[in-house]
What does this fold into?
Amino acid sequence: MSKSHGKTFYSYVVPSVLAFALSGVYTIVDGFFVGRSVGDIGLSTINIAYPVVSLLQALGTGIGMGGAVLYTLNLSSGKQGEAKKYLRCTTMLLAVSALLTVLLFFTMTPVLRLLGATGEMVTLGEEYLEYIVTGTVFQIFATGVVPIIRNNSGAKFAMGTMIAGFLCNIALDYLFVWVFEWSVAGAALATNIGQALTALGGFVYLAHHKIPVWGIETKGTGKGIKDIFKIGIAPFGISLTPLISHLFMNRFSVQYGGEVAVASYACIGYVFAIVCLLVQGVGDGGQPLVSQYYGQRKMKAVLQTRKLAYRTAAVLAALCIAGLYAARGLIGPLFGASAAATESVASAMPVFLSGYLFLAFSRVTTAVFYATEKVGYSYMLVYIEPVFQVLLLLILPRFWDQTGVWWSMPLAQILTAATAAVLKVRTDTGLSTGFAKP
It folds into this structure.
């Protein structure tokens, strides 16, 4: 493996990892300021409502990544007209997805109850989501435009826009939640403004570099949209998996552990979201190179890039395990959790850490699959994990109560990694003629 290849890989991956980490910190920042201002009930509310934010960001990521992969594959194959078509279809889909604002605005209360909110959590959750839903367009565009920029050699700029939005969010959270005392509404408003700044920076980049994303496609639009969704379902699912986990973990935690367990998982969930995004940043950061090499039929370079991604994700996961284990007693107080919730977080954290290395392997494998149009395998890996977790949640808590709820997540990650290993071996057997299609 040449030094130049490694340098190119990390020039894409390092900004991507940082950008993904910052995108996860948005909600953590909300939890930090609200938890210290309102207490366990505020922390639990943000945690209960988090899946809605995750859904919006997952939709933007799925559409943006689907279009970006197809753009790179066609461009590297010499099909510039097709590449431009997919970019235009992508931005059109991002615009249409803003219709979710209306749908979510009128369904937020039943959605909150479905997610497990009760009593005061429903009232605070409505207050939080009213502002989040109003800024739906910012959430979707901010996450959707990043893959397009990254696939146009703009990884560092994408990171810069994320940093700008993140710093803006912190400053406004301090102002709105602590100074003005606007509670969860202030946190949601700060998130919207931060995401709006990121989206604005993205579109400035597209305009400045004259990237052909504007215009309406009349010929082949249906096929373009279908192809984008076909690729984008996998990255959408990767971003959606924490939402599904949050939903079921909250529901079962309410049943077996009560409000303390929900508040505990709020702290753990914030940390887990960042770890997920870090390893996803490795996979998606390497995606432009994998798609480019695959489009050029440079299979050796594809394998080299995948190997680097595995190593990098494993190192990140190992560092997270060591750091979070050492700091497990400090995570609860960081978010203003009660003494009982803090103790629960410290005792449960090693359980969650046991699955991180397996998660890293699965995420990278999935990213390589959808970067090389192995959509069937990528779907399987993305959506089998929550299936495993639900099955485990139906079984383990009957014997271990809340401890069984905690163990459902890492065991599901281990089972998913085993599935990924089988699919990887099966795929690698076809390398003599290129990647075998499922």
